[in-house]
Design a protein that fits this description.
single chain, alpha/beta, six-stranded parallel beta sheet, four-stranded parallel beta sheet, 46% helix, disordered N terminus
Length: 340
């Protein structure tokens, strides 16, 4: 009888140990996160590297890929989904190109997080992590409004407009919100656009590629400013601002009041030199940190940190979002940002 009791106890201990071992294995299994980013600008590489580093530190297994074209990115997303990740994060080169490819994510119930750029026209997008695009555009317009003293009758100033890529849904948000601040001063004559090119379609720069801005600024300078100063430029990001300044300097023109976006190191240098007026900095550490917290909640089945549920519509649904606040950087605070 004692032997039987001992044998039963031993079997129970072995069974408990086996269960304990199974639990330990499950706990140590890493969640697999796929990340598909563009490599079209230095800021994208910086964002991707930051996100990968934070995910690895949080204990995730990360498969990150960068692409130069939308066709390359679509293939990378297809390949990533075939590996059945626990979550996929996409910074879209073309916001409208993912309707078909993300059907596979829906079928497999793989959460999709749109990073920085909204993915349009699909209900496969689970969440959106970005900066507040309205604030970006308004910040640009309001800074120029104040710098030019337009509210108090400043001007007239000659101005030209440039915008981001038409395949990026955020580009028109930035431009339209900046333009709505400046448009009343065009009507009053305090701002004068000698080229007459003021609509998003007229001023968009394909693929956010600064090289695509060169022909247009050269034509504008030769046609409209050979005998007049170009005093203000709404530039959509720092890379494009750099090219516009280079072409203006080559034409013998001084630096205008000019905006930027991203907070690139080269822009900080230009601000220090007095060439670029300001940039709207999007702190990659803040955004990627928020995105990692969102990923962690998604794979654990909990509610991510969200601060906007009504204003990020992708044409099919209001995508729950966390929108970070961008910051203006000019000569008054550039040293602080440059030291980060």
């Amino acid at each position: 009888m004692k032997y039987a009791k001992f044998l039963c106890l031993a079997m129970l201990l072995v069974f408990a140990a086996a269960l304990s071992g199974c639990g330990s294995s499950a706990e140590t299994e890493k969640h697999k996160i796929a990340v598909c980013f563009p490599n079209t600008t230095t800021s994208w590489q910086r964002n991707g590297d930051s996100l990968q580093e934070l995910l690895l530190e949080a204990g995730f297994e990360v498969d990150i890929q960068f692409s130069a074209t939308i066709d390359e990115q679509l293939q990378q997303v297809k390949d990533s989904l075939a590996k059945n990740p626990d979550c996929i994060v996409i910074a879209a080169i073309d916001s409208a190109a993912f309707v078909d490819v993300l059907e596979d994510a829906k079928k497999k119930h793989i959460p999709v997080i749109a990073f920085e750029r909204m993915i349009m026209n699909t209900d496969a997008v689970s969440y959106y992590a970005s900066f507040d695009g309205t604030s970006v555009g308004e910040g640009m317009g309001e800074y120029l409004e104040a710098a030019l003293n337009l509210k108090n009758g400043g001007g007239p100033y000659n101005i030209e407009f440039f915008a981001g890529s038409p395949t990026d849904s955020g580009a028109s948000v930035y431009f339209n919100n900046a333009y709505k601040i400046l448009e009343p001063y065009l009507r009053s004559g305090q701002l004068v656009c000698r080229s007459g090119q003021t609509t998003f379609d007229q001023v968009a720069v394909a693929e956010w590629n600064s090289a695509n801005a060169r022909p247009r600024i050269r034509e504008i300078m030769s046609k409209y400013y050979s005998d007049a100063p170009l005093q203000v430029v709404l530039a959509p990001n720092d890379d494009i601002a750099g090219v516009l300044l280079e072409e203006m300097h080559n034409a013998g023109k001084p630096s205008p009041y000019i905006s930027g976006l991203d907070g690139d190191a080269a822009a900080f240098d230009r601000i220090k030199k007095g060439d670029q007026t300001f940039t709207v900095a999007k702190d990659s550490v803040i955004l990627t940190s928020k995105c990692v917290r969102m990923i962690k909640a998604v794979v654990e089945g909990t509610q991510p940190d969200i601060n906007d549920v009504a204003n990020c519509n992708n044409g099919v649904k209001n995508v729950p979002a966390y929108l970070c606040t961008p910051q203006i950087v000019d000569k008054t605070n550039v040293d602080v940002w440059a030291a980060k």
